[in-house]
Amino acid sequence: MNEVAQSALAAPEATVSLWHLFWQAGFIVKAVMLGLLGASVWTWAIIIDKSMRFGSFRRQLNTFENNFWSGQSLEELYQSLSEKKTTGMGALFVAAMREWKKSFEKGARSPIGLHTRIEKALDVTLAREMDGLESRLGFLATIGSAAPFIGLFGTVVGIMTSFQAIAASKQTNLAVVAPGIAEALLATAIGLVAAIPAVIAYNKLSGDASKLGMRLEAFADEFSAILSRQIDERTPAR
Description:
The Tol-Pal system is composed of five core proteins: the inner membrane proteins TolA, TolQ and TolR, the periplasmic protein TolB and the outer membrane protein Pal. They form a network linking the inner and outer membranes and the peptidoglycan layer. This protein is mainly α.
């Protein structure tokens, strides 16, 4: 009896490795697992990339604000920024100044029309910058919400396959049932491994993107007010 009990306990232990469970799973369950593993790898790539980009973007904003409020003339700042590719506040500044210079070079007569064109240039550039900040965050949200259900689908298919194998073998002892159930549950575990970091990262990164967007909007409004005063000063009174 003791030998039988020891062999029953040793059988599940021999098949407990994740690698063995993966190879013993059916085709559909394997496909689910591989898809979830691929989604998990891509999720971490997005998390690392966006975290680095947000950090760099935040430093660029701080540098631009220091230069903008340092007393340097707008013309000098525009000349230095227009010669290179800019993002963030720099892109807003260049877009507004470019419209400003074009309008005055062509002899703009309507201050209201000039102000409207500057506002439109700021809005378009701001929308483009926000799209860049929020790009690929939707993938994190999708993985965070869908991965557990995809893993559950793999688990259901695996359990159904295990029950069919049990019915065919006509054996219902734990040593026969446990490996099939473990293979099926592995799909759910991988789904959770993919979903949990995606949900946490989405909440964190979307919050960071909103804060950066608010800084851009605040600068756009403030710079628009500055240019509006400049327009009033340049427009002769009637």
